[in-house]
Amino acid sequence: MKKTITTFLVCILIAGIAAQIHGQEVSGKKKSIIEKQVDLIFHEMIQAAEDIDYDKLNQGVDDRYNAGFIVNGIYFTRYDSLHNLMKSRYQGVSRQHLAIQKQKITVLSDKIVLLTATGDAKVELSSGNILNVKFFWSFVYEKIDNTWKVIYSHQSNDR
Question: Which of 29, 91, 114, 134 has its CA 20 to 30 A from that of 106?
Fold first, then answer.
């Protein structure tokens, strides 16, 4: 009897450890829905960036964790400081076009998603000059109040 109880308890312990190792599983159908939702939000933010619409871009970010944002090796502890820098840098920009070359969405759970992308930006300056830039992005999205928001990003470019 003691051996049976011990074996039973060991099986429960192993089952509990195995469940911890797999973490939160997301079904294929739910994963597909999440991927489409995040993809839609991501492309809305790309359109806002092309339109140089800072209010719309701000709506796609939630900085409640102060997780930080990295742009070309510069670490911003708060999104506000990054936002202010972007606004000042883009005063001489008349428009821009962002072409995504590769994009990957990885659903980590039903509330956390990683999106990585690379592409080309064509930035037209008010002076008439055109800059061509290759960009590399990583975004962490969290579902907050039933909406996907960027909570962390890492962006770099290569001219």
Answer: 134
Question: What CATH number is attached to the domain comprising 81?
Answer: 3.10.450.50
Instruction: Quote the tokens at residue 88.
Output: 């000042």
Say if CB 122 and CB 97 are below 8 A apart: yes
Structural element, H or E, at residue 157 = strand 147-158
Write the secondary structure of 73-129 as one string of H (helix), E (strand) and C (coil).
CEEECCHHHHHHHHHHHHHHEEEEEEEEEEEEEEECCCCEEEEEEEEEEEEEECCCC
pTM for the model? 0.81
Query: What is the span of the domain harbouring residue 81?
Result: 27-158
CB 63 within 8 A of CB 78: yes
